[in-house]
Amino acid sequence: MRIGELAARTGTSRRLLRYYEEQGLIVATRAANGYREYDDRFVDRVKQIRGLLDAGLPTRIIKQILPCLDKPRTIYFPDATPEMLATLERERDRMTERIEFLTRNRDAINEYLDVVRANRQPDVELEPAV
């Protein structure tokens, strides 16, 4: 697929997709006319990249994590420093806290909806004026 279709399918701008390519997060082949061509698997990859960026991870760490997202998994980190591992652990813990917060909010909204629906008066139909 071309860059415009990948942008539409992922909700990501073409500019960001080119940036992801510059950072080595995705790879495009070139058609005979010079246009970028992307494999369908990059739809999920771009969504995963966006999620990791939204979680606060920098692209240099995302690039190292990406092999963990593929199947079969090939994980090889010759430069996994203690600092990088500590950063990943902090980010993982921050994500866990956010998930727990979102879960509590979702549960509170569900409880509110249940109570409102249980106590709602049935709609009363008014007779048309004559």
UniProtKB/TrEMBL annotation:
The HTH merR-type domain, residue ranges: 1-68
Pfam family, one: MerR_1
Record's signal peptide: none
Keywords from the UniProt entry: DNA-binding, Repressor, Transcription, Transcription regulation
UniProt-recorded Gene Ontology molecular function terms: DNA binding; DNA-binding transcription factor activity
Organism per entry: Goodfellowiella coeruleoviolacea
Domain of life: Bacteria
Protein name: DNA-binding transcriptional regulator, MerR family
UniProt keyword Transcription present: yes
SUPFAM superfamilies registered for this protein in UniProt: Putative DNA-binding domain
Transcription regulation as UniProt keyword: yes
